[in-house]
Write a structure and sequence with these properties.
The structure is a homodimer.
Chain A: H1 3-11, H2 20-39, H3 49-56, H4 70-93, H5 101-118, H6 120-129, H7 135-162, H8 171-188, H9 193-212
Helix pairs in contact in A: 2-3, 2-6, 4-5, 4-6, 4-7, 5-9, 7-8, 8-9
The structure holds a DNA duplex.
DNA sequence: TGTACATCAGTGAACGCGCGTTCACTGATGTAC
DNA sequence: TGTACATCAGTGAACGCGCGTTCACTGATGTAC
């Protein structure tokens, strides 16, 4: 082991996969730092190159080794946020097991709220970029939202089938529920956690009303 | 009539109420010009002082005769947009007359879509400012949204009473419908008019499903 | 009605500032022999 | 294994630019007598 290598390893605690791997790691650190800034209340459109660089602890021009320009960073941030959300949605899906429907829903919504609290900065970012004048942002976000909406529909149909309810024609209901979830999130952004918990009960009743329609 | 007065009247076709009235008029022209810029695709946060001034046809510093700073202009823009929306909502309310419920709803939704198309720039502005990091913006918008939601609830209860339906406990339903209207608007922003018309049918079915629940 | 003065909406020039981006350079890492 | 060279992530200085805002000034409008 040469001296230079030893020094390097002291400087960077996690050697990971040298160079290429480290570059990836830095890129990730940049995205995380930007997300944290959003979490601290900065709006995504206000995120400055220097601000992000400062927050990640590197010189401003270094950013250009990872992103061609600020828009590319913005898009990457959106995509990173969407990846987080999707994994959240996926984990929530598995929650819908056994028990009676009301109880399962209650549990599912608790998980939903937990995810919101955890991914708050990603959500905030996505909401604000949802109407970014640059159509690239909107396109990505809408594509993923559409996927999630379809996932919800399929999930509902599958659950209904398992529980022996009548099949088909669930798209109206699932779209309504998707709308309710979206507006819940939008409204939750300005609530503290207690208020979110409180409003969650209303959401639960609303969803129950939709779901129960065919079972009265 | 002195020469100077004559010249002035030539320059400004509408004399209105001199000075004070003209100042009010100019202020209004500034707001309209800003809204038009939003309509042309600029995001509200991108609206520059000079850009607005250029669009209204005056020197940049003149803006300061009407607004203390850019934030005051931004807030005024939000308030102007909200006034427009409220008048829209008020006119729609009167639409809900006689006939059978399904037909009345159809008519109401047509009016709703018409209003969206007309007030598109105001809507766009409000949506984008809904999550402005400056809490002042959010506060105003949420206050007005809350009022509109309550208006809808009262309106539904009143209509139900007139038609002899069972009273009370409509808040769940009206909140669901309000959520559906909001998400419809959000999604409509990226649709052309044909697509909006098409999606309106889905919205109609969704609302019918909610409203009909108690009457099956 | 005419005159003298006050008001004030609008202007052109200038300010300091922070932005995104470029550039030549450094020095550690990776590669070939 | 050691040596010579290529690669390339990161740097410090500098760029031009447009931003919000200030200032002293202009000249038409409003007011008092």
């Amino acid at each position: 082991m040469t001296l230079s290598k030893a020094v390097t390893e002291l400087k960077t605690p996690k050697p990971s996969q040298s160079r290429k791997g480290r570059k990836e790691e830095t890129r990730h650190r940049i995205l995380m730092a930007a997300l944290q800034l959003v979490d601290e209340g900065r709006s995504p459109s206000e995120l400055g190159l220097r601000e992000v660089a400062r927050s990640v602890g590197m010189a401003a021009p270094s950013i250009y080794n990872h992103f061609a320009d600020m828009d590319e960073l913005g898009i990457a941030l959106v995509e990173e946020s969407l990846v987080r959300l999707r994994s959240v949605a996926r984990s929530a899906r598995k929650q819908m097991q056994n028990e009676n429907l009301t109880k399962a829903l209650k549990q599912l919504l608790q998980q939903f709220l937990l995810s919101i609290n955890e991914s708050e900065s990603a959500l905030r970012l996505l909401i604000m970029q949802w109407f970014n004048p640059n159509p690239e942002y909107r396109k990505i976000i809408r594509r993923d939202m559409s996927i999630m909406r379809q996932d919800l529909a399929e999930n509902m149909e599958q659950t209904a089938a398992e529980k022996g309810l009548k099949l088909g024609e669930f798209s109206l209901e699932s779209d309504i529920i998707f709308s309710l979830l979206i507006t819940y999130i939008l409204n939750a952004m300005d609530m503290d956690k207690a208020k979110r918990e409180e409003r969650l009960k209303v959401l639960e009743q609303q969803i129950l009303m939709i779901v129960m329609r065919g079972r009265l």
